[in-house]
Structures are given as structure tokens and as C-alpha cells.
TrEMBL record:
PANTHER family, A to Z: FUNK1 11, FUNK1 6
Species this protein is from: Rhizoctonia solani
SUPFAM superfamilies tied to this protein: Protein kinase-like (PK-like)
Name of this chain's protein: Fungal-type protein kinase domain-containing protein
InterPro entries given in the database record: Kinase-like_dom_sf, Pkinase_fungal
Lineage: Eukaryota, Fungi, Dikarya, Basidiomycota, Agaricomycotina
Domain Fungal-type protein kinase: 49-314
């Protein structure tokens, strides 16, 4: 795969991407600026037939264990995994001599603990799965369905391949491509944890039709691969949505970890029988009396916590279409917004979001616009369940936090269908509120790179590595 400059006579020449014998021209390329940014993304249009692909170039640190494309191949091995992006082509980007493009291995700061120097190689991933951003969603029900199915994909990815995503964000959860190719491929895909269309159909023979597309395994990890114990202790994710213990780089204090799984209430009893191909078990075979010593590491429930933060952040910034804007935003919304917007992981320090970790249904209702206050109890139920440090409860099914989120989402989806009470939604339609008094002199959200950037931080290192940047349509 190569990239060459065309139309050099123009003031702004284009760069054509060659993938084998196919040539694509970029549309709206994005090269992230700033310290540590090493990524280029663009929509590519075929020069002959007009077909589209999405192209992602990264400068991959050669010390990293996992190759993103290899994780996709493992996930889709033998049978496609429904709802997960597929890779059309991947490999090293070549220079004019057909050799991989690499950075010089000269910087001392890029040396590992043994003193070995490390460089970066330019790699490319191409996909035909061009998803749509969450901002394109126009109804509350659709948003809830996308979040439900995103949980299903994460669970199936773990259950089938033992792969963790480790960078769940509002740009890596996308709306499914509206194409027959995507739908037809998923119909025969792996879906042991079933998608919302199958659950609502109450038909064990219904084919999966994911409402979401999960993308960007750039920070993913295959738990089957032998690895240094430090690999799963890396601080990876998008700052706003990163799980609290991952943000801190250590286990949270053990508190109330006896929170009960949200019950299968009467309204979803009929549908709940179709959530799984086999009956879901809350407990593993390990009993609480024999649980092993626990250590800090990225685990599946951390991705579930990130999903909760995506849900809360998105709903808090949304309003009903056509609604008059509120004259005075609630102080708790102002505090929630600016705390989330400014959060950046700090090694060995308390997570700055502790101020918004309030165990109160009233609080989670207050951060929502009046149009969406009926969802306050759902957010509160989710928050209560993601709050504990679940690492101490190794006897529980690794998927239990995702299961809790899905049950609460399903209750709302079924309620909307029964009451015919869907809400036309404008995601991000709520204006940015002024910061509360105690935050008025903090850093401006517009000046920080942390809010849409995925970070990777290795324990023992003194600096962040920013090899991945969460961008729509990847």
C-alpha cells in the first residue's frame, strides 16, 4: 500500500492511496495535530467506480504487542462477528522503494527498560464499513438500541475471542452503515449475546441486525496471547469515558460491592428469554470463599463502565427536537458537563470525576434536560451498578456489568414501544453551559486535546503516548 501526490500543479495537491491495483482519492482527510498525535484518517473514493472505503494510517510504536488488524482477523475468524468492523486491507505503508516507512530509532526517550531503542512504523487499515456518528441519530429509541447492541458486540467479542476493546467512546460506537452489504453479512454472524432486534422479535430464529458498528481496536488486547503482566495495566482509552480505576492506574478502594443485578422486571420478562442463546448465569464456578488474590488490570467490566459514561454524556447534552432551550441550566448539569469535558487521567491521583459520582436518583435526573428526565432512574440504576470496584468479586460472570446495562436499556426500549412515546432527539443540541463558580477559572475545554483523544499510558513511564485519536466513521 502506498500514497502518492497527484495534481501537484494545484495549490492544495491531493494524495492518492494505492491498495494493490485499486486507487482511491481522499475526501475530507484528517491529520490530527498536537504533541503525540500520529494518525491520518480519510474517506477514500475509488477513481473508477466511485465506491467508498475508510482509510486509517497510524504510526505504530514497535514496542506495542497487539496489531489492530490482527485483532479484527482473530475476532472474525471462521465466522464474522456481527456488529464489529471488518478490514478490507491492511499492512505497512511503503515508500517509493517499496520498503516500509519507519521513523529513525534515535530518540533516547523512546528506549524501553532494557535500553533498546524503539521506532515507529507507518501502518494502514482500510475498511468498507463506513459507519455514521452518534450525532446522526434522530430518536431516543434509536440511541438506546445502538447502546444495547454496542454492549452485545463487546460481550460477543470477549466471549468468542477473549478480546477487550479498551477504548469505548462516543466515536468508536457508531450507528450501523445503512447498506445491504452490512446487513447481509451480519445476518449470518456470531451473535451468542443477541441483538435488540432479535430480543424484541421474541423469535429464536431471528437473524441479527445490529443497530451499531463497533470500531477501533487500536488499543485492544487479546487475552489468549502470552504477554507481560504490564500490558493490561496500561492506561488506555478516551479520557472522558475511561473507567475510573484505569484512569487512576490502580484498584479503587473496596466499598459496597454487593450491588444487586437489576431484576428482570415484569415489563421485559417475555423479551428477556431471548437475550441469550443459552441461559445467562450471574455467577462463575468460583465461590467467594475461594476467590484468588486480585491485581489491577483492564477487565471487561471497565469497558462496560466506559459505555455508561458514553450513555450519560450523550443524554446529558441532548434535547427534544424543536424544544425551547432552557434559560438557566441546572448547576448539576453545568458541573457534570465541565467535569467530564476537562477530565484527563493523572497517574496515581484521584479521578477528577469523583465529584459527579453521586449515588442519587435525583442527581442523575438533574443533569438531564426536562425533555429527558424520565431517563433519570435508568442512569441512576446504571451508575449504582458500575460504581463498585468489581475486581474484588472474581466469582461473578465477567459480563455481569454489561448484562446490567442491557437490562436497564431494554426496560426503556420496551416502555417506549408500549407507550408509543419515542422522543425526536437532537444529540448535542443542548448548548455548552457556563462552568459552575468553582470551575470558572479552570482550563478552557477548547484548549485541551484530551476530550476526543484516545490515550495509552504505560505504568512506570513519565509521559502519555497518544497513538490513537477517536474520530467518527472509522
Amino acid at each position: 500500500m502506498t500514497m502518492s501526490v497527484v495534481n501537484t500543479q494545484l495549490e492544495d495537491p491531493a494524495r492518492a492511496t494505492e491498495i494493490g491495483a485499486e486507487v482511491y482519492m481522499p475526501v475530507g482527510p484528517v491529520a490530527q495535530a498536537g504533541p503525540g498525535q500520529r494518525r491520518y484518517t480519510a474517506l477514500g473514493v475509488h477513481v473508477l467506480d466511485g465506491s467508498t472505503v475508510f482509510i486509517k494510517d497510524v504510526w505504530r510504536d514497535e514496542r506495542r504487542l497487539f496489531f489492530e488488524a490482527a485483532l479484527y482477523e482473530e475476532a472474525h475468524k471462521e465466522q464474522v462477528l456481527s456488529g464489529l468492523m471488518t478490514v478490507e486491507a491492511h499492512g505497512y505503508v511503503l515508500d517509493e522503494t517499496r520498503k516500509p516507512i519507519r521513523t529513525p530509532r534515535i530518540a533516547a526517550k523512546d528506549s524501553d527498560e532494557s535500553g533498546a531503542e524503539s521506532g515507529r512504523c507507518k501502518m494502514r487499515i482500510v475498511t468498507k464499513d463506513v459507519g455514521r456518528p452518534l450525532g446522526s441519530i434522530r430518536s431516543l429509541r434509536h440511541f438506546l438500541c445502538v447502546m444495547y447492541d454496542a454492549c452485545a458486540v463487546q460481550r460477543n467479542l470477549y466471549r468468542r475471542s477473549r478480546i477487550l476493546h479498551r477504548d469505548i467512546s462516543d466515536t468508536n460506537i457508531m450507528v450501523a452503515p445503512d447498506t445491504n452489504e452490512y446487513r447481509n453479512r451480519n445476518m449470518c454472524g456470531y451473535a451468542e449475546v443477541r441483538f435488540v432486534n432479535q430480543v424484541l422479535a421474541k423469535d429464536k430464529n431471528a437473524n441479527p441486525d445490529p443497530a451499531c458498528l463497533l470500531v477501533d481496536l487500536g488499543n485492544g488486547a487479546d487475552l489468549k496471547v502470552e504477554r507481560n503482566e504490564q500490558v493490561l495495566k496500561e492506561r488506555t482509552g478516551t479520557p472522558k469515558f475511561i473507567a475510573r480505576s484505569i484512569s487512576c492506574g490502580s484498584l479503587l478502594p473496596r466499598g459496597d460491592d454487593d450491588e444487586q443485578m437489576p431484576p428482570l422486571v415484569e415489563s421485559i420478562l417475555n423479551q428477556s428469554k431471548f437475550m441469550h442463546t443459552t441461559e445467562y448465569q450471574v455467577l462463575n464456578n468460583i465461590t467467594s470463599g475461594t476467590q484468588p488474590h486480585v491485581e489491577f488490570a483492564h477487565r471487561l467490566f471497565h469497558d462496560a463502565e466506559s459505555t455508561f459514561w458514553v450513555i450519560a454524556w450523550t443524554l446529558a447534552r441532548s434535547i427534544k427536537e424543536g424544544h425551547t432551550l432552557e434559560p438557566t441550566p441546572h448547576p448539576e448539569f453545568r458541573r457534570f458537563f465541565h467535569t467530564m469535558q476537562r477530565h484527563f487521567p493523572t497517574p496515581n491521583d484521584r479521578d477528577s470525576r469523583a465529584i459527579i459520582c453521586v449515588k442519587s436518583c435525583e442527581y442523575w435526573t438533574q443533569i438531564l434536560h426536562d425533555d429527558l428526565k424520565s431517563l433519570g432512574p435508568m442512569l441512576f440504576g446504571m451508575f449504582r451498578y458500575i460504581l463498585p470496584e468489581w475486581t474484588y468479586r472474581s466469582e461473578l460472570n465477567p459480563e455481569h456489568v454489561h448484562e446490567a446495562l442491557m437490562r436497564l436499556l431494554l426496560v426503556e426500549i420496551v416502555r417506549i414501544d408500549k407507550e408509543k412515546s419515542d422522543i425526536p432527539l437532537v444529540i448535542g443540541g443542548r448548548p455548552v453551559p457556563p462552568p459552575p463558580g468553582e470551575m470558572a477559572y479552570g482550563p478552557s475545554p477548547d484548549l485541551s486535546l484530551s476530550y476526543s483523544t484516545s490515550v495509552s499510558f504505560a505504568p512506570g513511564s513519565n509521559s502519555f503516548d497518544l497513538p490513537h485519536h477517536s474520530t467518527p466513521n472509522l
